[in-house]
Amino acid sequence: MSQQVSTPVSATATKEIVRESARRRTFAVISHPDAGKSTLTEALALHARVIGTAGATNGKENRRETVSDWMQMEKDRGISISSTALQFAYRDTVINLLDTPGHADFSEDTYRVLAAVDCAVMLVDAAKGLETQTMKLFEVCRARNLPIITVINKWDRPGLDPLALMDEITERTGLEPMPLTWAVGIAGDFRGVWDLQKDEYVHFERQNSGASLAKEEHFSPEDALAREGDVWTDSLDEAELVIDGREFDRNKFLDAKATPILFSSAALNFGVKQILDALVDLAPSASAREDKDGGLRPVEAPFSGFVFKVQAGMNKAHRDHVAFIRVCSGIFERGMVVTHSNTGKTFATKYAQHLFGREREVIDQAYPGDVVGLVNASALRVGDSLYVEEPVEYPPIPFFSPEHFRVARSQDPSRYKQFRRGIDQLEHEGIIQVLRSDRRGDQAPVLAAVGPMQFEVVEDRMTQDFNAPMRYEQLSYSLARLTTADAAEKLSNVHGAEVLVRTDGAFVAVFNDVWALRRVEKNHPDISLTVIGTES
Ligand code: GDP
């Protein structure tokens, strides 16, 4: 049958896009290293039954290897550097979990991931409370007004008093805690949770290993009292102190004014299903996205998306370059010809993949909220927009204020060309920011990083991928501000300060420390100095 009238077809497509967008939950877990992010990621996947047995995907024994290790450095250090996207179906939703490297030193990449999600899960170690990296990431979420679900993890181990944790959350984040579940049993004696929505006691039974789901039993409050006695009533009393008669208010969560609270032990799979249910029931679905000019691009508009991450060298055998796109509207179909908003050029998306750790799958279709990895789309940079038919440009992803600065030099002057190409490429991938000045010359660019590990990645990649061994000279700067061209002259003789030019043409003033900055502010009130993006 040839149905040539386009309207009914597009009406069907519209319906499909709206339905699929409403099913998407795209989020990231923000946490301090060691709070249990990798463990929780696997526990969530286990619950969604993507991974039959956590820690034993495809028969691999090393849990770390199953999730997100690409680079040798990651393996050596046992930390994850690259962000990836894990997709799984749960109940009637499709969950996209974007991995954020937790290491404090590699945070710029993490921050960018937060531009691509609709919600964040803030994972807190019950024994440690809100740690530095959690707070930094929280600040980025706050700047983006992202709704945050808070999970108090490791409740199976001795930890802080739950009310003290709630106070800390209120004081340090300004978010009102709204318990969805409350731990029954003090930290270290995790028996189960009170599910406040269903008003029932969910008792968890420990399995021999974290590789299988914990057994859950549900009890009415009366039965819970009979079973747990004072431990049950203590739990109710505590939660009621926090709730203080207020109703659970989803809008406050969506407006980033309050945060739902859940308790878990990711290692024992306690309370993990409740986290998934909270994501499905409460977290925002993929919806209309604001463009650069403040207009809204509805999900049913033709395909569009933006690049939130670019990475090369993930697969030595393939030497590839992958641009990760968050789909914002329409249906992405592999092979479709898209326009790159920066250049106005079109290209075919032949090699579209879904990537998570070592796993790669060819993607044929993706909907708003999904992440697509475009292989060998080497013109794409972080922040670039792509579209079909109706042009759109999404807001740029902010630069993060660098705090570490080093001069890079080629070890072998005869390989300067390779050196230059490598530095340009790594900057293009967003691995490092590059600052230059006439005074320092082209041979000695200043590399600026949010965390010092970025320097190691650059050094490693320069040797491995560009055959351009390099060395560093330490600089004592630790602070940067955006400034204007005239500042270069005015600060040329000031100790502990210097003006450099970023590749996008922005003038960046760098300072030894906050005192050097204050001195300049005092002595040169005419110089404009503004904070760069988000200060980590
Ligand atoms: P990440 O750095 O945030 O990804 O943290 P990991 O998931 O690697 O966890 C750090 C350590 O804490 C590991 O030894 C985990 O086994 C352990 N861990 C994670 N979650 C829990 C938990 O809920 N309870 C206990 N007792 N240990 C946990």
UniProtKB/TrEMBL annotation:
Family the UniProt entry places it in: Belongs to the TRAFAC class translation factor GTPase superfamily. Classic translation factor GTPase family. PrfC subfamily.
Residues reported in the UniProt entry to bind GTP: 99-103
Domain Tr-type G: residue ranges: 22-287
Compartment(s) of residence: Cytoplasm
UniProt signal peptide: none
Protein name: Peptide chain release factor 3
Biological source species: Arthrobacter zhaoxinii
Coarse class of the protein's main subcellular location: cytoplasm
Superkingdom of source: Bacteria
Protein task: Increases the formation of ribosomal termination complexes and stimulates activities of RF-1 and RF-2. It binds guanine nucleotides and has strong preference for UGA stop codons. It may interact directly with the ribosome. The stimulation of RF-1 and RF-2 is significantly reduced by GTP and GDP, but not by GMP.
Keywords attached to this entry: Cytoplasm, GTP-binding, Nucleotide-binding, Protein biosynthesis
